[in-house]
Amino acid sequence: MAPLARPASPPGPRAWLAALPTALGLALPEACAGCGRWETALCPGCAALLDAPLAEVASAPAAEELRVHAVLAYAGPGRALILNWKNGAREDLAPVMAAVGARAGEQWAALSEWPGDGSGTGAPAPPRLIVVPAPSGIARRARGRLVAAALADAVAQGIARAPAPPPGGAGGPVPLIVSADILRRESGRALRGAHQAGLSAAQRRHNRQAPPRVLADASGWDALIVDDVVTTGSTLRSCAAALRGAGARPLGALVLAATPPPARPAARLPAPAGPPGEAEQRRRAAAKRL
To answer: Which superkingdom (predicted)?
Structure first.
């Protein structure tokens, strides 16, 4: 007689937790990662924000002479899109942001006209471009949320597929384009300097004043710095200084979003002067109503 099969044990708490996201997905409709609109993961309006052409950033004075381009403004739905992707709340945005980065890389290649005609090098070696992400903090590295590095990979792929002829004509050397995460914050600043949120413009500039370390020799390379968001430009400036110290030639920076400049307060016109004692009469009338 065949032994009786043991009854299946009920699923443990871990199994229930693992099934919870799927159950919630069946119960709740999708919401747009930018504006929160239901029944869609990315509404047409927010998709259009990500599909905008590159614009040069004029609101990052700390970047100094570094030319910075951005895809969208870090405000409203654009800010929600970046945060949901950056913090891992919406993993489905990863391929979307990769496509945005690749398209931005193509546009940057056209705007910068890299590699140009190759004049000034005087050598038959191909032009070389290194796409460098801004350094991530130690906490983000521990979580594996290297969004700037992933964005730099996509940007490099976009630059590589841009329809630019090799310098020197059809028979010239093919440009060499790589993406390399070679910048690290100094050990003493890795923890306390990891975040810029909540700091004033002056504090942000001081927080990113020290250049990061460069882990590789970058002599003879052109460089493009990539980051997710630019506010004052202090991070980009310190990265450019570090790359120059390692022998590279920073050409500019490419970011997903730029924080818009603070709005100027509206001018307040003086209230028309009324008869003497009118303001006091209005105050007493309001107090009686309360």
So the answer is: Bacteria
- Is there a contact between 219 and 248 (Cβ–Cβ < 8 Å)? yes
284 vs 122: CA distance, rounded Å: 84
Secondary structure (3-state) at 252: strand
Cα 58 off chain centre by? 16
Q: Say whether 121 sits in a helix, a strand or coil.
A: coil
Phi-psi region at 198: left, alpha or beta (left = phi > 0; alpha = psi -120 to 50)? left
Using CA atoms, how far apart are residues 70 and 254, in angstroms rounded to an integer?
6
Across 127-282, the runs of DSSP E, i.e. the strands, are 128-133, 176-179, 183-184, 213-214, 222-230, 249-258
Pull the structure tokens for residue 77: 């739905």
- With cut-offs at 50, 70 and 90, classify the pLDDT of residue 11: low
Sheet order of strands, 249-258 included: 55-56, 68-73, 249-258, 222-230, 128-133, 176-179
Q: What's the maximum distance between 2 C-alpha atoms anywhere in the chain?
A: 109
pTM score:
0.75
Residue 117 is predicted with a pLDDT of: 62
The first and second tokens of residue 119, run together, are 């004049």
3-state class (DSSP) for residue 157: helix
